[in-house]
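Exercise 7. Predict the structure of carnitine O-palmitoyltransferase from Sparus aurata.
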Amino acid sequence: MAEAHQAVAFQFTITPEGIDLQLSYQALNQIYLSGVRSWKKRVSRMRNSLIKGVYPASPSSWLFVVIAILATMYMRSDPSMGLITKIQQHLPLRYTENTQMTSVFTLVFSTLLWLSLILALRFCLKLLLSYHQWMFEQHGRVSNVTKVWVTLLRLLSSRKPLLYSYQTSLPHLPVPPIKDTVSRYLQSVRPLLTDPEYKRMTELANHFELNLGNRLQRYLKLKALWATNYVSDWWEEYIYLRSRGPIMVNSNYYGMDFLYVTPTPVQAARAGNTITALLLYRRKTRVPGTVIPLCAAQCERMFNTTRTPGDQTARGIILSSSTDVLQHWQDSEFVAVYHKGRYFRLWVYRAGRLLSPREIEYQIQRILDDLSPPQPGEDKLGALTAGDRMPWSRMRKQYFSSGINKRSLDAIERAAFFITLDDEEQGMRGEDPAGNLDRYAKSLLHGKCYDRWFDKSFSIVIYKNGKSGLNAEHSWADAPTVAHLWEYTLATDAFQLGYTEDGHCKGDVDRTLPMPQRLVWDIPSEAQVCISLAVAQALADDVDCHVFPFREFGKGRIKKLRVSPDAFIQIGLQLAYYRDRGGFCLTYEASMTRLFREGRTETVRSCSNESSAFVKALENGEAEEQCRPLFRLASERHQNLYRLAMTGAGIDRHLFCLYVVSKYLGVESPFLKEVLSEPWRLSTSQTPVQQMELFDLKNNPEFISLGGGFGPVADDGYGVSYIIVGEDMINFHVSSKHSCSQTVSNTFVSFISQSKTCLFNLHNS
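Solution. The predicted structure, encoded as tokens:
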């Protein structure tokens, strides 16, 4: 193979005259340049570690402290108040000249003083970041305390921070009082239960609070003192990694391209710019400009990460089952590419430099032009990541743990990310734009069930007509982290990198680049029989997706009503569900807890007493004068619930952790068991737009993002994702299951549309 010959740095032959050594200086030069790049990255990491390690101070501040102390010593003043003399007595430097000894001891004291100042500044920063009352203040009515807080926070964080600079200064997630959690839980289920059911649940809750609850709470507080975050590790393990069902549809989620625009119709060119933009994002070391820092821990495993199926039994008493493992590698210089049943390794660095977008396009085109057929068992291999986890675990152990199959599997799993060059066309196009949008969503959510690698941290899909999209694995991070990456990628692709007039990437091409490496497999016939699509295909066929761009009004007109756009949408969803199913249900809205170190998400229980009272009044034909104040109360209640969730006073993560502790202790709690078995029939999430400045929708209104979506959480429920785009549009992604006759995504979307219009007209009449 050509690439194998190019990889050889030297050859030798034995002749009668001796050994004939032939060196390939070009290959040796490539090795040298790659080594230089590796060392540059190591030095850069060390530098960044030092900068973030001393934040909010700077490394140069050490020199300032040393000079200041030496200056005061020169003026025959002792700023240490005798500490330098104490240090001199305890360090074994007896035979050095007195002046040299004094300088050394002054240096030691200055360093200790500098470190003490860093710790003091970091402690002050942590205290400031523990203040969350600003979130509960009305818009435009900022208290003096909050104004002082903002000023102090800006002073302490005036140096431009790196991505992880704030990590050690972020507060830990607090454990709420068990009395508060139980009380909030009972309030949240009141509109869902009859009077006898509510009385029974109240008795269960009170018995738990007064007896077992306090015991479990003590263990949880002990964990909170010891661990960085008392929720996140258990949440990742028990909610995601221990799940034995398919992660396709059930856990993974998707992100879409622009709604109206496709920057280029050339598939290879779109792939070239997209790959380049993603790798440029990987280089980013700065946080977005914001006064309030958020935890960046989820960014650590964004690239070079794969979820691998576990076959070992998890330790502990909770579940005697296997657990998956998230594997992360420090760096990767290649991506894995799938096209028409074949897998390739595409190197994106050469001689220590990132290939230009035009060069990556050139390499992608070579893959597209490759007409070689898939090897036996290769084309459907990705189906293993789409089905149940245990069969995949057994297959991996038996057939992919050694030899050529392990090397090829390692190439996929160690890749920076995964690329699918899809042979279909997608997007809002043709005579059926709405139907094509739905098919676009389903394609990104599950594809053909074998042409994505669902275990990768994220997979990029580039379609034949240049449309793109993303499928992300959920265990390593939540949607806002991936949305931030995807926003940057779309904006960089369209506005910074750009294309030539004929739709190709810009830049020059080094045509001596080696061919992308075709991965080689040796999959025996008995293993090929075990690669089954049955489970994944049934799951994919059952999903009903509908994407709906709501264009009647958006955030701008909602804000004129002096209502939170998110509260407006959530109350509208309650009204839509009531009209669809004739009642209320337990509703999940995801909020983030990244104000705390290693924070992930918390649940906002959007179905409240106030929202249900408003919906009932509206549906019972009450006068508008009576409905408006009820709507205002429901909106304020929802905002308060969201704020409580963000500031560590939510309900569900606390109860979940108490349940985990109870299982470790081997005790049963009827209350916790019932709470955690309740189905979320309406699961909702807002995709935040975090970098609007990258798009400039005023001058480029056609570059509107479609957002993304996910599968339904309950078999008889809906999954609803929405993105508030600019001032005049809200995009909805609704999913359900065909197997449930009571849920039809298209019907529910029509109720959503009616509800939004109804709420808006209520305030304008």
